[in-house]
Write a structure and sequence with these properties.
Order of helices and strands: HEHEEHEEEHEHHEEEHHEEHEHEHEHEH
Distance between the termini: 38 Å
Strand content: 15-25%
Number of helices: 13
Structural class: alpha+beta
Shape: elongated
Helix content: 25-40%
Oligomer: single chain
Number of strands: 16
Largest sheet: 6 strands, antiparallel
C-alpha cells in the first residue's frame, strides 16, 4: 500500500527523523494560509502516488503567498503527467506546502528487502535527487549498501558505513547515523516494503533532514497496523483495482485488449507473456486466487468486462485446491449474471479436469476450450485481434 508524502513525513517525524516545516492543503485558501504561516518562500508539491513529480511540474519553489496560490491552482486544474503516470496524467487533489530550504548537498537513502539474502538492505548514494534506478544503471559504484541481519538488528556501524560512504563526516555523519537508525525502525515497526528519502539533504546550516519521503507497506501485514490502513487513498488508485480488492481479487489494469483470469500470480504472468509472444496485448493482470468460488469468478468477469478495451477473455485455471469442475460451474453461473459480450478461451488443467471441460462444452456459452497454455494464448489472440 502506498501513502502520500505528507503522510510519510508525519510518520517520520514521530520517529524523530528531521523534516522541513509544512502542511498539506486541499483548497487554495489552505494554501494561502500555509504559505503565509511559513513566511512566503515555500515549496508547493503535488501529492500523488507517482514519482517524477518535479519533471512534470508538480514541485515548484515560489517566493510569496500569491505565487504559491497561483502554482497550486495550476496543479489543481491540470492533470499531472510524470514518467510514472499514463499520458492522460493524474488529478492533483492535495498539495504539500513546505518551507523552502537552502540546500548544500542532495543525497539518497532507502531501505528495501533483499529477497536473495533474506534481510533488509540499506542503500545510500551521493547522487541524491536522481532516480535510484538511473544511478544503479549508469554509476552503480555510487550506491553504498549495508545489510542488516534481523536477528541482531540495526547497529551504528551500519549507519557509519553509509554516512562515510557518501562523504559525510563530523556532526553531519553523526546526525545521518541517527537518522538511518530511526528510518530502519520505521521500516521494521510498520512492516514497510520500501522506506525512501530522496533527496536526503544537508542544508546550508549543516542540518541533515528528509526533504522528500516515500513509504510503501506490505499489504499482507496491514492487519497489524489498522492506523496505517486508514491512510489509504483510494482516489489515487484505479477504480477497477479498488473494486477488485473488495472481493479478494488481485487486479491491475493494463492497456491491451485480451482480458485474463488466472489463479496464481506466477501463472498469470506466464499467461500474459504468452499473449504478448503470440502478438496480443493483455488488458489486465488478474489473480482470482487458489480457492476461487462462483462469486469471485462472477465479480472477476464483471471487472474484466468493465474495461471497454477488452475484446476477448482468456481463462487459465490450474485446478489444485479448487477443482476444475467447481471452476467450470462458477464460469457457467457467472455467465447467467454477467453479459459476456467478449469471446472466451478456457484452459483447465488439474483435478477433475474432464468433468470441468464437459460442463463447459455443454454449457452453450460462446467459448473455445484449449488443452495447452500456448494453444490457449494463440486462440485468444486470434479471436481478440481478428474481431
Amino acid at each position: 500500500m502506498k501513502i502520500h508524502e505528507y503522510q510519510a513525513k508525519e510518520i517520520l517525524a514521530r520517529y524523530d527523523v528531521p523534516i522541513p516545516k509544512g502542511r498539506p492543503a486541499w483548497t487554495l485558501d489552505e494554501v494561502r494560509t500555509a504559505a503565509a504561516d511559513l513566511g512566503g518562500r515555500v515549496v508547493v508539491k503535488a501529492q500523488v502516488h507517482a514519482g517524477g513529480r518535479g519533471k512534470g511540474g508538480g514541485v515548484k519553489v515560489v517566493d510569496g503567498v500569491d505565487d504559491a496560490v497561483a502554482r497550486a491552482s495550476d496543479m489543481f486544474e491540470k492533470p499531472l503527467v510524470t514518467p510514472q503516470t499514463t499520458a492522460e496524467g493524474v488529478r492533483v487533489r492535495a498539495v504539500l506546502v513546505e518551507e523552502a530550504m537552502a540546500i548544500s548537498k542532495e543525497l539518497y537513502l532507502g531501505i528495501v528487502l533483499d529477497r536473495q539474502r533474506g534481510m533488509p538492505v540499506l542503500m545510500a548514494s551521493a547522487a541524491g535527487g536522481m532516480e535510484i534506478e538511473e544511478v544503479a544503471a549508469t554509476t552503480p559504484e555510487k550506491i553504498v549498501k549495508a545489510w542488516v541481519d534481523p536477528a541482531t538488528g540495526f547497529r551504528p556501524f551500519h549507519g557509519r558505513k553509509l554516512a562515510y560512504g557518501i562523504g559525510l563526516s563530523g556532526d553531519q555523519a553523526k546526525a545521518a547515523v541517527k537518522l538511518v537508525g530511526n528510518l530502519y525502525r520505521v521500516f521494521t515497526d510498520l512492516d514497510c516494503s520500501l522506506a525512501e528519502i530522496n533527496p536526503l539533504v544537508v542544508t546550508g546550516a549543516g542540518s541533515v533532514l528528509a526533504l522528500d519521503a516515500k513509504l510503501n507497506f506490505d499489504d499482507n501485514a496491514l492487519f497489524r497496523h489498522p492506523e496505517i490502513k486508514e491512510l489509504r487513498d483510494t482516489g489515487e488508485e484505479a477504480p477497477l483495482e479498488v473494486e477488485a480488492s473488495r472481493y479478494g481479487i488481485n487486479y491491475i489494469k493494463l492497456d491491451g485488449s485480451v482480458g485474463c483470469m488466472v489463479n496464481g500470480a506466477g501463472l498469470a504472468m506466464a499467461t500474459m507473456d504468452l499473449i504478448k509472444y503470440y502478438g496480443g496485448e493483455p488488458a489486465n493482470f488478474l489473480d482470482v486466487g487458489g480457492g476461487a468460488n462462483a462469486d469471485q469468478v462472477t465479480n472477476a468477469f464483471r471487472i474484466i468486462l468493465s474495461d471497454p478495451n477488452v475484446r476477448a477473455v482468456l481463462i487459465n485455471i490450474f485446478g489444485g485446491i479448487t477443482r476444475c469442475d467447481v471452476v467450470a460451474n462458477g464460469i457457467v453461473e457467472a455467465a447467467k449474471r454477467v453479459d459476456l459480450r467478449a469471446p472466451m478461451v478456457v484452459r483447465l488443467v488439474g483435478t477433475n479436469v474432464e468433468e470441468g471441460r464437459a460442463i463447459l462444452a455443454n454449457s452453450g456459452l460462446r467459448l473455445e476450450l484449449a488443452s495447452g497454455l500456448a494453444e490457449a494464448a494463440q486462440k485468444v489472440v486470434a479471436v481478440g485481434v481478428a474481431k
